Amino acid sequence: MAKAKATASKSKTARPKAAGGKNLAQSLLNKVNDCTAVVGVIGLGYVGLPLVREFCRAGFKVIGFDVDPQKVSMLKAHKSYIHHLPPDLFKTPITTGQFVPTTDMSKLKEPDAIIICVPTPLDKMREPDMTYVRGTAETISKTLRAGQIVILESTTYPGTTREVVKPLLDRTKLKVEKDYFLAFSPEREDPGRKDFSTNTIPKVCGGFGPRSKEIAVALYAKVVTQVVPVSSCEVAEAAKIVENVYRCINIALVNELKVTFDRMGVDVWEVIDAAKTKPFGFQAFYPGPGLGGHCIPIDPYYLSWKAREFGVTTRFIELAGEINTAMPEYVINRVAEALNEHGKPLKGSSVLVLGLAYKKDVDDVRESPSVTLIELLQKRGASVAYHDPFIPQAKPMREHNITHLKSVALNAATLKKFDCVLISTDHSNVDYKLVARHAKLVIDTRNACGKLRGLPRGRVVKA
User: Fold this and answer.
1) pLDDT at 192
2) Catalytic residue among 233, 295, 420, 449
3) N or C end of the chain: smaller count of CB under 10 Å?
4) Is 205 known to be catalytic?
């Protein structure tokens, strides 16, 4: 693949004079440029596995590390655990030895480049949980050798690479920019998206120093069409946070408008469709039952937490968080009101939740509002089942436990058994005409039934 075009000028910061550092950097650059560098990816999930695919396509040997032996076993058996990454993508690289998935962390001494793609969740106090990042950095430090570059991709607050990762790697007595190299390049994955993929999404990249940046930029230029170099790890860390804060706040705005317009008897989806006809000055965001995915519900709080260290209160972020967090409760209240109009209390009613994934056409349940909705319904005494064509059985989650649930078949007979159908995720391959025709009551949080006509009044309620 041709080298990517860099959209920022190269840093003119003076390089360290140590000959060892210069020689090590040049040696690693040479390996990157001729694709003989071995790439290690830690975390073979929704971020790490697409990276493996791209580095294999570019001709690099890749070692994939994960603490989950089941993932490693499935990959070795030519099976995939992520819907939009079919197993055929990895069959040839695994068979030829180009891609080696493993749980053996002692092999971390083998890669020339180590890319960290581990979770960065919030703890129960909604503060950054650095457990996975720290643990991974500590593990790398046990085998870190001169001539390696370590790149963090996990979304986090500005300063993480410098304040958390570097001190742990420095325990080895190796010196950054002289013996080893360090960078941050935020993941920008959007699972299930058709118009962009890993290699076509521009890659922001910041190094701890000029050598680190040069090596990291050269590495990613082999696998993506555009690399965007920035002046530091902190700028790269902040850029990803800003992207998700922007989305979080705008989603909160339309969620608040949804509640407001509902009281006025105005359809917020029709309003947004009308507003977006303006060719400038407006970007359409849509309301939903709550935020989902690993980024938008979590990342803004990382910035809020870090801002407090500097005596700053991020009021927009905090308010947006309050609004979005309140959405599942709002939806359940709408369910209760709609059932009441049909002469049924929520307690004792049977509810079918359509969609367990956090967004359409993926099998990703991370932070999915559907899970929260199920738990709220159960708490209020409803009997709950779900249907999701991508998730035959509920997956284990850090904060929730609904693994006893399995997806039920979606047909006329099934729909008629439930007092209410709650559309939480608008998968494209669900027949919403069938749902609206045979369900007694539909609560639609995604406007999935918005274009259907001829339905009895009160059959579909938007929430």
Assistant:
1) 76
2) 295
3) N
4) no
